[in-house]
C-alpha cells in the first residue's frame, strides 16, 4: 500500500542528507573547532576550498566578513552570507563551534523541488503539496540542531509533521461518534458508481457487528438496474435486513423506511446506499439534497477509490459542495501505490478519511489512523 509514495519520501530524505553533508562538523570537538577557526582566520590569505567553511568563522567577536574568507566561501559553495534569509557567518561559526548545524535554503532548494515533483507525480493535490513543502521548509530552514541529531532524523521529523498536518484534518473517532449518537444512527453513502460503495456498506455493517452494533441496509440507489440484487446479495451473505423499493422509486423514501424499520426493531445503525449516477450530475446532487432534507442523516460518508488519485480528490470536493459530507472512505487502498488521494482528501474537503478499504473481503476495512499512516509512509520496511 502506497509503496511508490514511500519510495519518493525516502528519496527526499537521501537528497537532503547528501546536500547537507558538507555542513556536518568534522570529528573535531568543540574546542578544536573553535581553535581551528581562530587559527585559520589568522592565516586567511590563501584558504583552500575545503577550509572555506571553517574560515568563515573568522571572528567570534562579530566582525563577520573577513574579506578573503568570505569570498572564498562564496566561491566554494555559492553561498551568499549577506543574504537576509540565511544564517549569518557569525551564527554559523557559533553553531559550528557548539556542535550545532544550520540547514540553509540552498541545501533544500533542489530536494524540495524534487519533493514537489514527486508529490505531484503521486497525485497529491497541488495545494496539499504546497502546504507540505511550506511546512517542511519552515521546520528545517535555519534550524539548528544538536550534533547527535542526524540530518536524516531532522528531515524525518519535518516530513512527519508536514504530512500529519494535511492528513489529520478534521479527524474524529468514528466509533465514539456512533456510540454517543441517539439510535438509530443514519449513515448515508455517496459517491460515483463502481468505486466500491455497496461493498463498503456491507463491510461497515460487519465492522459495526464486530463492535456490538446491529445495522439494517437501505438501498437508495433506485436508478440503476440490478442495484437491488447487488446489495441483496451482500445482505443475504451477512444475514442483514435490506429495505428496498422498486427501480425508479424515491430514494429518500427508501432510506426513511429504513429508519422506521430500525426504530421498530431496535436496530442501532441504518446504512443508506445512494445512486452514483443519474441523468445529469445536477439531478444527482438534487437527489442527495432531498435525502438530506427528508432523512436528515447523522452522517454522510463519501466513498471513492484510492486508485483514482486526483479524480477521487476532485469528486470528494464536488460531492462535499453538493451534500456536505462528514467523512470519506477510500477503497482499493490495497491496490494503490501513489497514496495521493489518501494524503489529499482531508485537506481539500476539510473532512477526514475514516476508513480505508483494503481488499474484497468483508473484513478488509481498516480504521484510518493518520499517525499510523504517516509512520508507515516514513518507515523503513
Ligand atoms: N481490491 C479491492 N477491491 C474492492 C474494494 N472495495 C470494493 N472492491 C471491489 O470493487 C468492485 C466494485 O465494488 P461495488 O461495491 O460493486 O461498487 P459500487 O460503488 O457499489 O458500485 P455501484 O453499485 O455500481 O455503485 C467490486 O468488485 C468489489 O469487490 C477494496 O477495498 N479493495
TrEMBL record:
Residues 18-33, 42-56, 72-86 have a biased composition (Acidic residues). Residues 1-87 are annotated as: Disordered. Signal peptide: none annotated. It is a peripheral membrane protein. Its EC number is 3.6.5.4. Residues 352-365 form the SRP54-type proteins GTP-binding domain. GO terms for cellular component: cytoplasm; plasma membrane. It comes from the Archaea. Residues 1-17 have a biased composition (Basic and acidic residues). The keyword Nucleotide-binding applies. It catalyses: GTP + H2O = GDP + phosphate + H(+). InterPro entries: AAA+_ATPase, P-loop_NTPase, Signal_recog_particl_SRP54_hlx, SR_rcpt_FtsY, SRP/SRP_N, SRP54_GTPase_dom, SRP54_N_sf. Its main location: membrane. It is an enzyme of class 3 (hydrolase). One of its GO terms (biological process) is cell division. It is found in: Cell membrane; Cytoplasm. GTP binds at residues 191-198, 273-277, 331-334. Pfam families: SRP54 (PF00448), SRP54_N (PF02881). One of its GO terms (molecular function) is GTP binding. Keywords: Cell cycle, Cell division, Cell membrane, Cytoplasm, GTP-binding, Hydrolase, Membrane, Nucleotide-binding, Receptor. Involved in targeting and insertion of nascent membrane proteins into the cytoplasmic membrane. Acts as a receptor for the complex formed by the signal recognition particle (SRP) and the ribosome-nascent chain (RNC). Belongs to the GTP-binding SRP family. FtsY subfamily. Part of the signal recognition particle protein translocation system, which is composed of SRP and FtsY. This is Signal recognition particle receptor FtsY. It comes from Halorubrum lipolyticum DSM 21995.
Amino acid at each position: 500500500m502506497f509503496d511508490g509514495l514511500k519510495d519518493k519520501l525516502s528519496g527526499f530524505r537521501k537528497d537532503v542528507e547528501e546536500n547537507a553533508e558538507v555542513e556536518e562538523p568534522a570529528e573535531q570537538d568543540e574546542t578544536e573547532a573553535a581553535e581551528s577557526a581562530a587559527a585559520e582566520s589568522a592565516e586567511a590569505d590563501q584558504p583552500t576550498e575545503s577550509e572555506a567553511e571553517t574560515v568563515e568563522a573568522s571572528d567570534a567577536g562579530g566582525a563577520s566578513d573577513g574579506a578573503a574568507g568570505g569570498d572564498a566561501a562564496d566561491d566554494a559553495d555559492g553561498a551568499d552570507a549577506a543574504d537576509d534569509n540565511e544564517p549569518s557567518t557569525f551564527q554559523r561559526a557559533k553553531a559550528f563551534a557548539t556542535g550545532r548545524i544550520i540547514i540553509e535554503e540552498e541545501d533544500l532548494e533542489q530536494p524540495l523541488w524534487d519533493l514537489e515533483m514527486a508529490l505531484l507525480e503521486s497525485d497529491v493535490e497541488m495545494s496539499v503539496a504546497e502546504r507540505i513543502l511550506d511546512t517542511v521548509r519552515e521546520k528545517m530552514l535555519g534550524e539548528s540542531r544538536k550534533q547527535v541529531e542526524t540530518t536524516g532524523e531532522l528531515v524525518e521529523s519535518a516530513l512527519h509533521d508536514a504530512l500529519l498536518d494535511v492528513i489529520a484534518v478534521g479527524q474524529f473517532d468514528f466509533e465514539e461518534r456512533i456510540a454517543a449518537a441517539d439510535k438509530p444512527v443514519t449513515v448515508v453513502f455517496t459517491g460515483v458508481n463502481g468505486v466500491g460503495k455497496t461493498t463498503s456498506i456491507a463491510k461497515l455493517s460487519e465492522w459495526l457487528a464486530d463492535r456490538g452494533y446491529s445495522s439494517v441496509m437501505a438501498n437508495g440507489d433506485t436508478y440503476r438496474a440490478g442495484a437491488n440484487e447487488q446489495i441483496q446479495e451482500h445482505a443475504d451473505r451477512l444475514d442483514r435486513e435490506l429495505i428496498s423499493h422498486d427501480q425508479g422509486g424515491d430514494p429518500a423514501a427508501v432510506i426513511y423506511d429504513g429508519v422506521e424499520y430500525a426504530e421498530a426493531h431496535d436496530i442501532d445503525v441504518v446504512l443508506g446506499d445512494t445512486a452514483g449516477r443519474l441523468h445529469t450530475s445536477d439531478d444527482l446532487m438534487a437527489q442527495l439534497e432531498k435525502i438530506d432534507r427528508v432523512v436528515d442523516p447523522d452522517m454522510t460518508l463519501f466513498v471513492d477509490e484510492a486508485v483514482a488519485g486526483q479524480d477521487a480528490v476532485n469528486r470528494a470536493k464536488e460531492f462535499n459542495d453538493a451534500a456536505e459530507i462528514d467523512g470519506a472512505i477510500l477503497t482499493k487502498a490495497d491496490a494503490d501505490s501513489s497514496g495521493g488521494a489518501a494524503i489529499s482528501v482531508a485537506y481539500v474537503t476539510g473532512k477526514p478519511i475514516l476508513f480505508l478499504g483494503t481488499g474484497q473481503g468483508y473484513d478488509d476495512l481498516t480504521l484510518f489512523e493518520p499517525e499510523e499512516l504517516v509512520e508507515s509512509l516514513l518507515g523503513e520496511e
